[in-house]
């Protein structure tokens, strides 16, 4: 069966999905369904874009991963990795930095403030100048929180997914660092999927590891990275398979997504491993 045919059965009004594969000649689109130019609320998928802009600021020398940021003894790296101890949506520190994985919108917002303080550029403008414009993400816009305030189209996220498969804005080494486990061994709750020990995370990127249940497939490699959002969307990259999938929808995350997303991922991984000349997503 065509791996993307199942998207038509999702209980959503509008969905848009694309699959990319890294090949020797570059990044190739294997298939897509849904509108390319429909704007979607990315919710927490916004965190990937914010993290990428922060990492660009690091490589530009504006800030450092070890710079203080957030609660006492916390750093930029702690905030990126949800290891600062900050609570989800407030100012309280619930743990010492580096001791628990506490998913925090506040921590991501503090990163935006740190970039603004270091560069003198409002974070929404910095994100546009550092990420959206260079990648041609003409429909992407941050309004509100850097943790969940981006709206964008499938064409926009397709361009970002291609960047993750073949980086141009960051060094390969920085992307490898960002998509490897930061502060290993920390336990915590993955929103929507419960507590995991460990709850692996990179610098802004959730790492699949051996978490189960999970929003990716059982056949996705442990080093698969990405993010999903409560707006009903996700982006994952499976480095072992050389594949990425972007899915955007207009229905909030819930049981429908828990049931629909992992089988889609498994079917994409299975189809994506077929030689390019024979692959038909």
TrEMBL record:
Entries under InterPro entries matching the protein: Beta-lactam-related (IPR001466), Beta-lactam/transpept-like (IPR012338), Diverse_Enzym_Activities (IPR050789)
Pfam family, one: Beta-lactamase
SUPFAM superfamilies: beta-lactamase/transpeptidase-like
Highest taxon in the source lineage: Bacteria
Residue ranges crossing the lipid bilayer per the database entry: none
Gene3D superfamilies named among the record's database cross-references: DD-peptidase/beta-lactamase superfamily
Domain Beta-lactamase-related, chain residue ranges per copy: 36-267
Protein name, entry field: Beta-lactamase family protein
Species: Frankia umida
